[in-house]
Design goal:
single chain; alpha/beta; seven-stranded mixed sheet; six-stranded parallel sheet; 15 strands; 25% helix
Length: 332
């Protein structure tokens, strides 16, 4: 076991100024926990970019190593649930927020944050999915619990070229749904149709505010990653009894809506949280992604990243310039 490890660290250098660098840190400096994990892969999520730029709603303590996703191997265990050599996945809870995360070669965490890597899913595949892919699957899982089915009409996905949206498009198509995708990137229409979107809509068409309380019934379900007016317009057009799953706020955290869709069309707005979701429910979703919901050809979503290329990718994801999933391979 080495004494040090390599990590991508963010340091606060002044009022609202932060410096990013790849550096060596002491393993002994990791926080308490009964699992020490050697990280093989992580992934870049929008929340990681917020952490790396000092968003106080994500990270308050610096210097800090972001990375809300980890796939790796247990190298020290004080838990009866995991043995040295076990392959595990860790997403959510405090990982990468105020606990050093997956943008370092090692993490130390409470064992209750980890799930065993399920048979049928590789460590690499689990991190191509990461929190974004997991969240997409959780949206579909909850929508189906509330009655969504392929016979109920097309499903609308917003933010469709992002991590959550692109995986949602692929998964829904694979499960037999007709998928309509919203994007602000007109040049990515072929990409979206290639992963299963039957129709691609411009973001601008869904950003127009209207005083009309309802629109024509169109959607049998909605996976929304952006919030704001786009979510409101999608809800207005839900079919009777259908649901929208809300998991993001890239456009806005506000919902300038009325109650009319809910009381006249019996529709549901479902909240989606992958951070504090109980570990048994996390295991259920990972098992689905390893089994009946296994997504073929995940490599087409991948932009390969290293600790040295992370900083540029963080700037691009904040500007909405990334497509698919950023997979971070840690040094061996």
């Amino acid at each position: 076991m080495p004494d040090t490890y390599t990590a991508f660290q963010v340091t606060k250098t002044g009022d609202r100024t932060y410096e990013r660098q790849v550096t060596d840190l002491e393993i002994a400096g990791l926080p308490d926990g009964d699992l020490l994990i050697k990280v093989e892969y992580s992934s870049l999520n929008y929340k990681d970019a917020l952490s790396a730029t000092g968003n106080p709603g994500v990270t308050r303590n610096f210097p800090h190593t972001p990375g809300i996703d980890v796939a790796g191997t247990v190298v020290e265990s004080g838990s009866d649930s995991f043995a040295v050599g076990d392959s595990v996945i860790v997403i959510g809870f405090d990982l990468g927020m105020n606990t050093p995360g997956g943008f370092g070669q090692y993490v130390r965490i409470p064992s209750k944050w980890a799930v065993s890597l399920p048979s049928g899913l590789s460590s690499r595949e689990s991190m191509i999915l990461g929190t974004a892919g997991f969240t997409a699957a959780l949206c579909v899982h909850k929508l189906e619990k509330f009655g969504m089915s392929p016979s109920g009409g097309p499903v609308l996905v917003s933010g469709s070229t992002g991590g959550v949206g692109s995986i949602a498009v692929q998964l829904l198509n694979q499960l037999g749904y007709e998928v309509h995708a919203i994007t602000g990137k007109a040049d990515q229409a072929d990409f979206l149709k290639g992963i299963g979107a039957s129709e691609v809509h411009s973001r601008e068409a869904f950003e127009e505010e209207s005083n009309r309380p309802l629109s024509r019934e169109m959607w049998g379900g909605v996976v929304d990653t952006v919030g704001g007016v786009i979510l409101v317009n999608a809800i207005k057009a839900l079919k009777y009894g259908s649901s929208a799953a809300a998991c993001g706020l890239v456009s806005s955290p506000a919902i300038p809506a009325t109650v009319f869709p809910f009381i006249l069309r019996h529709v549901n707005l479902l909240g989606i949280d992958s951070v504090e979701l109980p570990i048994e429910e996390k295991k259920e979703i990972w098992d689905k992604l390893a089994g009946p919901w296994h997504i073929g050809d995940l490599e087409k979503f991948v932009e390969s990243l290293t600790l040295d290329t992370l900083s540029d990718a963080i700037d691009r994801i904040l500007k909405g310039q990334m497509v698919g999933r950023g997979l971070v391979t840690l040094p061996t």
